[in-house]
Amino acid sequence: MLFGQFLSMYLVTVLGNLLIIRAVISDFHLHRPMYYFLSNLSLADICLISSLLPKLIVDILAHSRVISYVGCLTQMSFYILFACMDDMLLTGMACDCFVSICHPLHYETIINPHLCVLLVLLSVFLGLL
Asked: pLDDT at residue 102 above 90?
């Protein structure tokens, strides 16, 4: 029963986030900074849930609760990396919303594509830190 619940949760999360990424890529009207951050957030969420749930599902099927020290360290490192990336991407999205609300006439000059790429790369590097 737990296997089915965790597997369905994993599949719904991965397929939902892939659907968001595909919608943002395929629709030209969604090529805006907020949706760029949203697609990167979806990718980080896929990686975040993929760092924990597959091992959990395998352990449920194998009736095993054993994990090596290196495996645990690797799993926790990836989990922390992608959780920090999520937080930093949400911060970038909040900055985007702040600029669009408080400075709507200067939005296009402040939030440009170079800044969006810089913020995404900054979230990756801060997650690695």
From this structure: yes
Contact at 8 Å (CB) between 36 and 63? no
pLDDT in tens, 23-64: 999 988 888 888 999 999 999 999 999 998 888 888 888 888
| Count of H-run helices and E-run strands, the chain | 6, 0
DSSP summary character for residue 27: -
Assigned fold of 1-128: Rhopdopsin 7-helix transmembrane proteins (1.20.1070)
84/14 Cα distance (integer angstroms): 19
pTM value is 0.87
**Residue 115 and residue 56 in contact, taking contact as beta carbons nearer than 8 Å:** no
The ranges assigned to domains in the chain are 1-128
